[in-house]
Amino acid sequence: MKSRSSFAVMFAVVFTAILSGCGSSTSIANPTASPTNAVVGGVSGADNPSDVAKGYFAALYSGAATDQFICTGNTTVTDGLKKMGDAVRAGIASGGIKVDTSGLTFETANQTSDSADVKISGKVKSASAAGTSSEHVFPAQILKMKNENGWKVCGMSSATS
Fold first, then answer.
1. Contacts 24+ apart (CB under 8 A), 69-72
2. Is residue 152 scored above 90 in pLDDT?
3. Would you state the CATH architecture of domain 2-158?
4. Per the count of CB atoms within 10 A, which of 30, 40, 44, 53 is most buried?
């Protein structure tokens, strides 16, 4: 029971940080994760914003670096994404939690040659170091993507639909 509440608290803190640190109105831009969240190399240069979003989430929830997925524009936004990534990595490391993002769906919308939105929704599974596991509904989010010689994450907001 403690691991479920710890995971729920971690998710709440992380997404509060995302929404307050990145802000839905401050963003600069209008790969399939395996059950072990292996990060696919070279995804940041992909032609599809959804593939990059998948790679970002796989890296984020496996505890790997996410800098290669984040755009270089508005430092207020990108610093918020980097701080959120640091907090998630620290939470995963200290809690011994494994997160399976394979139940998430990534849908590209509003794509132009230089920007796109990717809606993330679905379910994530978590497993504690003690061996308990649970499934959680992921609060739908929109990643703001920008094409900087390859798609990059440039912001995040809560999905309203």
1. 69/43, 69/44, 69/152, 69/153, 70/152, 70/153, 70/154, 71/28, 71/29, 71/146, 71/148, 71/152, 71/153, 71/154, 72/148, 72/152
2. yes
3. Roll (3.10)
4. 53
